[in-house]
Every structure is written in C-alpha cells, then in structure tokens.
Amino acid sequence: MTWSTREVAELAGTTVNTVRHYHQAGMLEQPERTSNGYKQYGPRHLVRLLQIRRLRDLDVPLAQIESMDFGGETPATALLAVDADLAASIKRLTRARAEIRAILDGTTATDVPSGFEHLAGRLSSSERALMLVMSQLYDESAMADMQKMVEAEAEDAGVEFDALPPDADDATRQELAEALAPQLAQNLIDYRWLLDPKAHLPKGSRVAQETLLETAVELFSESQLDVIARASVIATELAAESDTPTSDG
After folding, report:
1. What residues form DSSP beta bridges with 39?
2. How far apart are CA 139 and CA 150, in angstroms?
3. Quick one: which of 243, 153, 244, 134 has its CA closest to 197?
4. Does residue 143 contact residue 135 with C-beta atoms inside 8 Å?
5. Which of 106, 196, 200, 235 could lock onto 181 through a cystine, CB 3.0 to 4.6 A?
C-alpha cells in the first residue's frame, strides 16, 4: 500500500507543506517515485509522521525532534526538558490564577509589582506607578529591600507629601523635607547599596537614571520633586553623620 503526499499528510493529520518541511529538515526520508515522478509513501513514512506529530503535540521543539533517533527508544532527554518547561508553566499559571482570584475578590491590586500587593494601600497612585517602573530596572534583591522600606514606613507617612500643593511655599517644602529625611537616612544606613546601586541595575545605570527621572517628572509635581531633592540631601548628611566616630571628650 502506498500513498501520495496529500494522502499520507491527511492520514497523519498534517499538511502537505508540513510533510515537505520535514523532508527539507531531514526528519523524514524521501520516498520512492513512480516512473512518472509521483512520490509513493509507505507505512514507515506514515509511522514516522505520526511519531513526529505525537512529539509535536507534547510541545517537543522541532529542533530537538530533528536530532532524535526513532529506533524505538523514548527520546528521554528531550521529553525531560519539555517536562521541566511544563512544570514551570504550571507553577506560573497557578500563581497567576491565585493572583487573579485575589484581585477579583478585592484583596490585592494590579498596579503594584508582585510582592507589594499588601502595601498598595500605603502608596499613592503615583508611588505605585513608580514602583512598577522600578521593578523593571532593579533586580529582585533590590525590590525585596524596597518592599521592606515601604513596610518600615508609618502608614500615614506619605499623606502630607501626597497632599502637597504645586505652589507650596519654601518654608512648607523645607519642613516636609526635614520630616521625611530621617526615614530616608535610615534606609541609607540599612541598605548601603542605595548609595551605589549599579550592581542592582541589570539594564545599566544610565538607562535606570534616565527612566526614573522621566517617570518622576511625569508622576510628581514640581513642589514634590523639590521636597524629594531636599530630603535626599538631608538624609545623605544624616547617614554620613551616623558613620562619623564620636569622641568621649
């Protein structure tokens, strides 16, 4: 019993173009031809096509199938790799379903990085947006520290900052900066890498600095940016003072 290309493709549940691709890739041997040039596929071709189809249904990449020996032994290495990929996908999808369920139940938020859901209520919309951007610029270790910093802040710490009017006078800005500085200084003391974060910026310092600057300008008012700058200067000085040895006199 022999079949044409179209017939063997239909039997294998695939297409003529796919059969031709398998020939070109060396995955399927060329059949004999009749005197008038038509291909004649036999049972061994059909079996090989079904083997390939079975592996493709299991998401084994074509590149791995090409290197397999279909001598009857299970292609264990390729299948183990696919199994590992499937396990990772199941874990990711399970976590995604749990997060979606929590969002639907109203117990978490979508506009904060993973791990910050329980802190969403402490952050303004601008701060949540900034954290999302930061999660793309800093590594996991740095973001874990960021989470701890937010947790350490008083829940009402940012209320006055969030309510700061764009035309706030100099005295108001300075007073707020001085109020925010001690916590910032403590962060600099507890997380020394904040002073030199290069090791935690996978995309590089220049990209991180430019992206954060553009994002901050978009999210915060001029008065808020001024307060951040002032508080940062004060915090750096306070952190430096804590490192300065004191004499007993």
Report:
1. 33
2. 17
3. 134
4. yes
5. 235
- Give the pLDDT score at 75: 65
Per-residue tokens: 217: 């300008």
Low-confidence residues of the chain: pLDDT under 70: 67, 69-75, 102-103, 105-110, 244-249
CA distance 190 to 145: 9
- Does the pTM of the predicted model rise above 0.85? no
